[in-house]
């Protein structure tokens, strides 16, 4: 299996607080990897380390290496702006820009110098179809994105992310603010998307992890306790703590 | 890659530009303080504080203006403070949501934006002429009170709003009346915030000259006001007066006056900040 | 004798007379610290308005009382004494760096200052003067100086062109002219005395506004006496009586101090006799 | 357990009623103030317009109410005010907005903590000090660059007013930008946007109405600012857009006349109130507009 | 059994919204009565109706009668201030005043004209002992109450309420903001207090209701579905909906 991201001896500090402790793991291409663990264990922190979104927080320190397709993303040559274009991200709460649906999707493209109308039109249509939103919104793509429902907004945010044709998409609890039906739609969408993208998803729902992910990583207090195929994690956890967690004994 | 470079370059330029904007304010402030200090500091002395104004720059002093200012802010404070807090209490604790309450709130917000000099004309018409207080401290203080009332009310309202509902409910649940709850829980909790806002408004009153010129505090006054009905002058007007004197030295006297004014303002504002930091009650959430 | 007198003295009126009165007040207060004196600067007209209503004890005046004002005083039962305190000349000044104008005629002044004046450039006054915009400064409308100048030069009180910088505060005028090479202004002689170093005064019809010329009336038409008007009722109060007496006794020195021309000794004596 | 005896509340309840009435009465003072303003301005203004037609007042191009013959066209004062507003806005709006952007988006927390109070100090300095500064520091500099500048000129006063209103723009705009949710910013960053692009495309458009409101407030403040223009702008009511000339604003006129104490009841006295009324109406309208803009914005979010 | 409160045909409106529908029930003296039901069913509303704390909300309407010891509390003669003195209340979040512990407890007494130091001292000691807080705080009763832990604060609030010697104490989820150990302490305290007071408690925890209450009322959508002894409710619910709720099938 081909790894697309490799994490080596990663320590992460907020000020003096060690939020991630010596993490080592490979993320495999065209798979869905789920990060699970109780609140505060560092899932989001790790996710944001992968596309350097943590750069915006003051007083952080990163030790160790993260390789994206063999290149250390914390090396001087890597431009985080460019990195984020290639590693997209979807957040917990849908955060469409207060612009039209169309402009939301093409925002990243425009910033990267793509301004040809044909291309943009094509991308909008393709991504909206990819996130199964096309039929629902095709009549109002020039209306404000804020008028969509929460579930639609989240799918739009995914569309916006994949419009950049990233290689990896990071998702931080993308369905936790949504109703069950929207959640289901997005889960289906993820299974569809993994053909083209590598997906890392943070989730609080064991069921969701079990349903959609190929690999699952269980974190506790900033440590990576266990990382294995989803099947193994849920059926054959090697660590007592993993077992306790997935059977709902704590958290 | 070229485009990314250009984008990052733009960002850097913008960063520098906005930083320069911020720096501009800082630089201006330093230049202003420096130019005033360098002109005025040599003229500061005890005599300057205790002398009367004079036609000789060397003998000119700020005493009557200083006391006039103190009188003015003292009266202004005792007039505006109870009215301001009372109004805020009424609006926050008593008034029901209604068109009328909305109107009062809108009205207060609008009053906050009325130029100071208009208040001067109000003072001239109502206090100086209609009520016949003449060009006295009380006319000035009443005018200033009206001028700063909106700010006091608005900041007091903010402070009152910050009182957690749970505290009020707890008080009521112990069988207290509204006023008892206000004095027992609401005011003690909100007071630091109220005081901070009030003191800052008072310091504004201290620096205002325009309304007082209209009310008529512009004259040579050779004495210390003893009652609120005496004529008076205040620091900003005395400074204004000196600044427009033709003798070059008076420019420096004016600068010395400004230093005194700024020191007083600084003192007052520090009191506000200390109050805020020291007495701010923090309720754990 | 220090501190015996107490009370308040309310003075208002002419900004021209103000420096004299302020100086007198300052000196008087040294001996009588318990007398509260306020000296306003409302201009002669503004001061008379209050004076005839009995609102103030003394009015500084740079002209004598007008008939309307007199009538008002009568109607209000205000009795007063007019006292001459000094001579003043209205000076016409230009910037120190002005190296073309040294004297000017009354006709030229009228040409410059009259209502609807066509003078824009200095060269409009005399062709040999530079073709630079002339910037004009003069006192505000509420002053005796303004009234006097407009009636003497332009032939009608308050008749004047509209586009000059007018200020009730003569110091503003001094600064204006001092700061501008192409400026011209007019105001009370004293303000010139205090700012000789930054201003240049013009001869009028060839006569310089020297102390001598002002006193003997050669400096025409812009020299005049200055007055204080004292309410007779107020004069019964010891502090006011004493103040006015002090005023006339000390006037000679103080008037010179602040840049005006004192009256002859004999004349001060006459004034003193009026308040006996 | 002893039974505690409680006092009856009858007495307290009576005073409660009285207190409530007193507080309500205090609430009326603000209304009275407004009425007072309207009354004191408009009474004399109406008398003024009995003698002078509104048309002459609003369209006349000469303002010489106290000369012979008097002219009552307020336009020169309005133009003077406008000049001050334009000059001050050229300073306060870009610099204020720039500072707001820097403080809210770029500045590290520590620097922000230092710089923000400095700007607040700038807001607390009395206008008389700015007037002095304009006269003694700004004008001389302008004269070095443009020697033909008048001692009293619109430029110097306008710059000082602009400096004074920087904090007004910056603090309001900064608040607005700070309240733009971070999730929007991160959404854009995650698409590979630069900080500049996030500010330009996301932060400013989202905070725009409040930013605009802060501009309007700064303008309104400039319209009403008095001591700076009285000290530095001169007192020549003139229809000019040349910033290097001496001008007069509405507020400047009011102060000038107030210092001279115009006789009560004369037409000159009434011009004060006519100009005051106009000033009041202009600032009142500006304030209403800014409130409206902010309010509509609130409803959106 | 003696009833101390009697509720008759009570309807309660927030504006046009009917939040309580025709409630009829008796509250028995010296018992603990628990109100249970899903979020939004009207428990807090009913509780606040009993000491007229709802008076502070605008636009409410009360229909029907509530008798406290035989007197209709919504009649004109009843002074709500006096009523609240006799029917105390403890809130969900501990809300001590930013004053000393001592002043917190005697606050209500002082406002009601009791100022004798001996009485106040005695009350402080007695109530602190009653809420089992005395030993923990006796050295700092002149220190700010804000320095106490959440559990201690809540016990202080109970002490503050019983210092007024109320006849009934209303408690709106008094332990929901507390850790398990503090919760246990307060539950013990309530069992102790019911000797002297009548207690009505709103709780989301079925276990808590079962552990401490004598009577339990189950509400749903503003209706009183079932009201019976706690034993009957939990072991023998007559209504299907009650059964569903207590077995965790919804809510
Ligand atoms: N900006 C920050 N500054 C300081 N500490 C932080 C910051 N963000 C997170 N932390 C701390 O780092 C630890 C890990 O946080 P993180 O958000 O990664 O947890 P998480 O596993 O995503 O939790 P959740 O499931 O609640 O989202 C927590 O203890 C948290 O308090
Ligand atoms: N002040 C209010 N104005 C309008 N409606 C209200 C108000 N307070 C409560 N409600 C509504 O009345 C209903 C009952 O609310 P209440 O707070 O009594 O429920 P509850 O059973 O205590 O719920 P919870 O368990 O969440 O505390 C709810 O639908 C609520 O939305
Ligand atoms: Mg997280
Ligand atoms: Mg509730
Ligand atoms: O102030 P005046 O002397 O010119 O009247």
UniProtKB/TrEMBL annotation, chains A, E:
GO BP annotations listed: phosphate ion transmembrane transport
Claim: Chaperone is one of the keywords in the record: no
PROSITE patterns: ABC_TRANSPORTER_1, ABC_TRANSPORTER_2
Reported function: Part of the ABC transporter complex PstSACB involved in phosphate import. Responsible for energy coupling to the transport system.
Cell compartments where the protein resides: Cell inner membrane
SUPFAM superfamilies membership: P-loop containing nucleoside triphosphate hydrolases
InterPro entries: AAA+_ATPase, ABC_transporter-like_ATP-bd, ABC_transporter-like_CS, P-loop_NTPase, PstB-like
Pfam families named among the record's database cross-references: ABC_tran
Name of the molecule in the record: Phosphate ABC transporter ATP-binding protein, PhoT family (TC 3.A.1.7.1)
Species of origin: Caloramator fervidus
Topology in the lipid bilayer: Peripheral membrane protein
Record key words, sorted: ATP-binding, Cell membrane, Membrane, Nucleotide-binding, Phosphate transport, Translocase, Transport
TrEMBL record, chain B:
GO molecular function: phosphate transmembrane transporter activity
Pfam family, one: BPD_transp_1
Transmembrane segments: 12-37, 62-91, 111-131, 205-224, 253-275
Biological processes per GO annotation: phosphate ion transmembrane transport
Source taxon at top rank: Bacteria
Subcellular location: Cell membrane
KW Transport (keyword) present: yes
Domain ABC transmembrane type-1: 66-272
SUPFAM superfamilies in the cross-refs: MetI-like
Family listed: Belongs to the binding-protein-dependent transport system permease family. CysTW subfamily.
Name the UniProt record assigns to this protein: Phosphate transport system permease protein PstA
TrEMBL record, chain D:
Subcellular location: Cell membrane; Membrane
Any one Gene Ontology cellular component term annotated for this protein: plasma membrane
Membrane topology according to the record: Multi-pass membrane protein
GO molecular function list: phosphate transmembrane transporter activity
Location of the ABC transmembrane type-1 domain: 78-290
UniProt keyword list: Cell membrane, Membrane, Phosphate transport, Transmembrane, Transmembrane helix, Transport
Any Pfam family matching the protein: BPD_transp_1
InterPro entries given in the database record: MetI-like, MetI-like_sf, Phosphate_PstC
GO biological process per UniProt: phosphate ion transport
Keyword Transmembrane: yes
Residues passing through the membrane, by range: 21-42, 74-97, 118-145, 151-169, 202-223, 267-289
Keyword Nucleotidyltransferase: no
Source domain of life: Bacteria
PANTHER family per the UniProt record, alphabetical: PHOSPHATE TRANSPORT SYSTEM PERMEASE, PHOSPHATE TRANSPORT SYSTEM PERMEASE PROTEIN
Family listed: Belongs to the binding-protein-dependent transport system permease family. CysTW subfamily.
Record function comment: Part of the binding-protein-dependent transport system for phosphate; probably responsible for the translocation of the substrate across the membrane.
Name of the protein: Phosphate transport system permease protein
Source organism of the structure: Caloramator fervidus
């Amino acid at each position: 299996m081909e790894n697309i991201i490799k994490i080596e001896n990663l320590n992460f500090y907020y000020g003096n607080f060690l939020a991630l402790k010596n993490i080592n793991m490979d993320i495999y291409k065209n798979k869905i990897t789920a990060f699970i663990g109780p609140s505060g264990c560092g899932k989001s922190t790790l996710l944001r380390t992968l596309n350097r979104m943590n750069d915006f927080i003051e007083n952080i320190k990163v030790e160790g290496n993260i390789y994206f397709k063999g290149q250390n993303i914390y090396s001087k040559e890597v431009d985080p702006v460019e990195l984020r274009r290639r590693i997209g991200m979807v957040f917990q709460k849908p955060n469409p820009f207060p612009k039209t649906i169309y402009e939301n999707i093409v925002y990243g493209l425009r910033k990267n110098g793509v301004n040809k109308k044909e291309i943009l039109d094509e991308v909008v249509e393709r991504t909206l179809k990819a996130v199964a939103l096309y039929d629902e919104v095709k009549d109002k793509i020039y209306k404000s994105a804020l008028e969509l429902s929460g579930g639609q907004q989240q799918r739009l945010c995914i569309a916006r992310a994949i419009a950049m044709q990233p290689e990896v998409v990071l998702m931080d609890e993308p369905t936790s603010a949504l109703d069950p039906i929207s959640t289901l739609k997005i889960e289906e969408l993820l299974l569809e998307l993994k053909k083209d993208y590598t997906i890392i998803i943070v989730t609080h729902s064991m069921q969701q992890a079990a349903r959609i992910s190929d690999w699952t990583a269980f974190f506790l207090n900033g440590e990576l306790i266990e990382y294995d195929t989803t099947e193994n994690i849920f059926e054959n956890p090697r660590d007592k703590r993993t077992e306790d967690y997935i059977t709902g004994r704590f958290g | 890659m070229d485009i990314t470079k250009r984008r990052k370059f733009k960002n850097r330029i913008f960063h520098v530009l906005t930083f320069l904007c911020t720096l501009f304010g800082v630089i201006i402030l330093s230049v202003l303080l420096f130019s005033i200090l360098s002109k005025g500091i040599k003229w500061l002395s005890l005599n300057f504080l205790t002398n009367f104004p004079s036609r000789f720059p060397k003998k000119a002093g700020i005493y009557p203006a200083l006391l006039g200012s103190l009188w003015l802010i003292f009266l202004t404070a005792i007039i505006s403070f109870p009215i301001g807090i009372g109004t805020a209490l009424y609006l926050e604790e008593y008034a029901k949501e209604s068109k009328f309450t909305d109107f009062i709130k809108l009205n207060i917000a609008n009053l906050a934006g009325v130029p100071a000099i208009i208040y001067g004309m109000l003072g001239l018409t109502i206090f100086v002429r209609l009520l016949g207080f003449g060009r006295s401290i009380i006319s000035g203080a009443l005018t200033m009170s009206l001028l700063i009332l909106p700010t006091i009310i608005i900041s007091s309202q903010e402070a009152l709003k910050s009182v957690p509902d749970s505290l009020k409910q707890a008080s009521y649940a112990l069988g207290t009346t509204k006023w008892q709850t206000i004095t027992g829980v609401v005011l003690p909790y909100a007071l630091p915030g109220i005081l901070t806002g009030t003191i800052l408004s008072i310091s504004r009153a201290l620096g205002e000259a325009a309304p007082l010129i209209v009310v008529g505090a512009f004259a040579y006054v050779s004495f210390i006001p003893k009652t609120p009905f005496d004529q008076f002058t205040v620091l900003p007007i005395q400074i204004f007066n000196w600044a427009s004197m033709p003798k070059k030295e008076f420019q420096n006297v004016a600068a010395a006056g400004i230093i005194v004014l700024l020191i007083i303002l600084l003192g007052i504002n520090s009191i506000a900040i200390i109050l805020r930091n020291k007495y701010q009650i923090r309720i754990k959430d | 004798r220090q501190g015996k007198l107490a009370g308040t003295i309310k003075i208002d009126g002419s900004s021209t007379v103000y420096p004299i009165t302020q100086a007198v007040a300052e000196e008087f207060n040294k001996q009588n610290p318990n007398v509260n004196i306020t000296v306003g600067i409302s201009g002669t007209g503004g001061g008379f308005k209050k004076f005839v209503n009995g609102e103030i004890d003394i009015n500084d005046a740079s002209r004598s009382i007008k008939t309307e004002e007199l009538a008002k005083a009568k109607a209000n039962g205000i009795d007063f004494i007019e006292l001459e305190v000094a001579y003043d000349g209205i000076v016409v000044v230009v910037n120190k760096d002005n190296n073309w104008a040294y004297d000017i005629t009354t006709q030229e002044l009228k040409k410059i200052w009259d209502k609807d004046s066509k003078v824009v450039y200095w060269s409009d006054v005399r062709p040999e003067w530079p073709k630079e915009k002339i910037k004009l400064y003069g006192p505000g409308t509420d002053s005796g100086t303004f009234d006097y100048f407009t009636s003497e030069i332009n032939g009608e009180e308050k008749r004047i062109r509209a586009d000059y910088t007018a200020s009730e505060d003569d110091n503003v005028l001094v600064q204006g002219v001092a700061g501008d090479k192409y400026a011209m202004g007019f105001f009370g002689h004293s303000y010139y005395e205090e700012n000789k170093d930054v201003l240049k005064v013009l001869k009028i019809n060839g006569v310089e506004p020297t102390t001598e010329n002002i006193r003997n009336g050669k400096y025409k038409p812009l020299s005049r006496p200055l007055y204080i008007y004292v309410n007779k009722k107020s004069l019964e109060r010891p502090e006011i009586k004493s103040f006015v007496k002090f005023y006339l006794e000390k006037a000679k020195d103080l008037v010179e101090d602040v840049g005006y021309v004192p009256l002859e000794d004999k004349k001060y004596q006459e004034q003193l006799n009026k308040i006996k | 357990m002893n039974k505690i005896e409680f006092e009856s509340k009858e007495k307290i309840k009576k005073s409660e009623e009285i207190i409530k009435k007193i507080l309500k009465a205090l609430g009326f003072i603000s209304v009275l103030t407004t009425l007072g303003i309207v009354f004191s301005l408009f009474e004399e203004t109406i008398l003024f317009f009995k003698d002078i037609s509104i048309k002459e007042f609003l369209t006349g191009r000469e303002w010489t109410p106290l000369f012979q013959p008097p002219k009552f066209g307020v336009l020169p004062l309005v133009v003077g005010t406008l000049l001050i507003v334009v000059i001050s806005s050229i300073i306060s709006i870009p610099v204020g907005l720039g500072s707001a952007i820097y403080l809210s988006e770029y500045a590290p927390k520590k620097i922000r903590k230092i710089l923000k109070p400095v700007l607040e100090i700038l807001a607390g300095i009395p206008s008389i000090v700015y007037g002095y500064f304009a006269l003694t520091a700004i004008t001389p500099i302008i004269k070095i660059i443009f020697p033909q500048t008048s001692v009293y000129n619109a430029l110097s006063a306008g710059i000082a007013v602009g400096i004074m209103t920087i904090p007004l723009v910056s603090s309001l705009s900064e608040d607005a930008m700070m309240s733009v949710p971070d999730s929007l910013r991160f959404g854009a960053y995650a698409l590979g946007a630069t900080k500049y692009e996030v500010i330009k495309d996301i932060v400013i458009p989202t905070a725009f109405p409040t930013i605009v409101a802060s501009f309007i407030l700064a303008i309104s403040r400039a319209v009403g600012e008095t001591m700076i223009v009285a000290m530095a702008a001169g007192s020549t009511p003139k229809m000019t857009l040349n910033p290097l000339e001496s001008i007069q604003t509405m507020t400047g006129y009011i102060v000038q006349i107030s210092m001279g104490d115009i006789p009560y009841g004369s037409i000159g006295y009434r011009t004060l109130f006519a100009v005051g009324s106009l000033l009041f109406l202009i600032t009142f309208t500006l304030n209403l507009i800014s409130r409206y803009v902010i309010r509509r914005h609130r409803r959106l979010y």
